[in-house]
Amino acid sequence: MAELQNLTVIGSGVLGSQIAFQAAYFGKTVTVYDISDEIVAGLPAKWQKLSEFYARDMAATPEQLEATTARITGTTDVTAALANADIVIEAVPENLELKRKVWAQIGAAAPSSTIFCTNSSTLLPSDIAQSTGHPERFLALHFANEVWRNNTGEVMGHAGTDPAAVQAVLGFAEQIGMVPIHVEKEQPGYILNTLLVPLLGAATHLWVNDVASVEDIDRTWRTATGSPLGPFQILDVVGMETLYQINLNTGTDESRRVAERIKTEYIDKGYKGRDTGRGFYTYE
């Protein structure tokens, strides 16, 4: 397959914006699609914030960062966003029906050679692939939060994915500074979240059942394991919206209680995680 130079990112939330910036930093031409003019108008502020992180953590120069933002275009026109796409990465909320609806639109509008990737954290490619109309070109490319630091790119196809598409996406991940990880068989949560989700689920279990405070749960994990972050500090990076959607869709009584508490105590008050300055903790 030809080099995947033109990237379209669908959704400019925490991870969508990071993926776009990371790809542009490594020389890709990036179009970011989102649903409202207000969201698109706010993208330059996200690029400025990410520029600060790249200057701090990647020793990026002002010239590199200026070139990075120049490679990114934002739009609310999905047809225009997909017109020249070599590869699409979808980063919309973890809701299966929403993702199927979005992928039906993408599949109808994208060029015939475009490779389709979901950044879903928990859903299987085979759950979504048929919605695209082109399942042979559909697979998952999963990023960890703070992609410039935690730079794994987990690539996972489904039984009907063209092996050439898998190889192309593994190459793309490496080109944008990720460590490409080939997940050879469909696995909910890939490798990273298969390891991480039980920890975070255990932490929210302790919290929603009032066994211990957020601070004491985190303090226990950090002290006993030497980890730099406790589970709730990790959840603040993940973001409350993602935590809410995952628990809402899990279907157990406990997950429902976690979702309800997250919504009423955090999301409804605008406390959506570290990216907004407050989640379980407050950040400057």
TrEMBL record:
GO terms for biological process: fatty acid metabolic process. GO terms for molecular function: NAD+ binding; oxidoreductase activity, acting on the CH-OH group of donors, NAD or NADP as acceptor. It holds the Pfam family 3HCDH_N. Keywords: Oxidoreductase. Residues 189-283 form the 3-hydroxyacyl-CoA dehydrogenase C-terminal domain. Transmembrane segments: none annotated. Pathway: Lipid metabolism; butanoate metabolism. It comes from the Bacteria. The keyword Glycoprotein does not apply. The record marks 142 as: Important for catalytic activity. Gene3D superfamilies: N-(1-d-carboxylethyl)-l-norvaline Dehydrogenase, domain 2, NAD(P)-binding Rossmann-like Domain. Residues 7-185 form the 3-hydroxyacyl-CoA dehydrogenase NAD binding domain. PANTHER family: 3-HYDROXYACYL-COA DEHYDROGENASE FAMILY PROTEIN, 3-HYDROXYBUTYRYL-COA DEHYDROGENASE. Belongs to the 3-hydroxyacyl-CoA dehydrogenase family. This is 3-hydroxybutyryl-CoA dehydrogenase. It comes from Kocuria varians (Micrococcus varians). The lineage of its organism: Bacteria, Bacillati, Actinomycetota, Actinomycetes, Micrococcales.
